[in-house]
């Protein structure tokens, strides 16, 4: 090969390399801008008008870090609204700004629409929908449940029975009914009627003991999530023994739990007690649903 041909070929190859490298170096760099905070109100998760939730998404969220706190209101399974939990939204945003928050409604019980298991399944539908949409929402589908009264009962039942994928990492139970076999209930002649109205018997096997089947204390297992409990020692609606019985059942299975008893009734405690609830709850979130 002559020197002239060699230099021509060398020049062609060098030019090709230069073009290739230039193409690589000059390609545009795509900067991922941090996502802004977003609020989505009254998101439907079912066909019923009450099957809605409010979703509070934090800024700079990511699908591998932004875990979710779910708020479940009370109201005796027949009343209440997600608006009742708005105070907890501010509390969580102030102390845990990197968490997403979901504040849910569920279908309230009527004579034609029993509470159990439908309200447990409503919570399941919320969690399933959020899990399915994790990429579009940029959330990590690990959940903490905070429920008050009936909402605490729903949260406990969901975690102890329906959370087969262990997506729930903790439950906060504030004055939640946990044991319908407690004499406080069974000695009330009206309670069997109330329970029968709350239960969809067709959804359970025949000969089911509904008081046990819908009591979280009887559903505790080694797979139950860490549970934080707050009860009053003069509660006219949920006896302190419900908290104590749940504490015993969790201890028996080796489940991390903490029971705090305050002077007073159904959550109407003094300011110091309510501040203590906030402090303990914040610590529980940091421990069991941390943002890495």
UniProtKB/TrEMBL annotation:
GO MF term set: hydrolase activity
InterPro entries in UniProt: AB_hydrolase_fold, BD-FAE-like_dom, GDXG_lipolytic_enzyme
Location of the BD-FAE-like domain: 54-247
Alphabetized UniProt keyword annotations: Hydrolase, Signal
N-terminal signal peptide: 1-21
Pfam families, per database record: BD-FAE (PF20434)
Domain of life of the organism encoding this protein: Bacteria
Official protein name in the record: Acetyl esterase/lipase
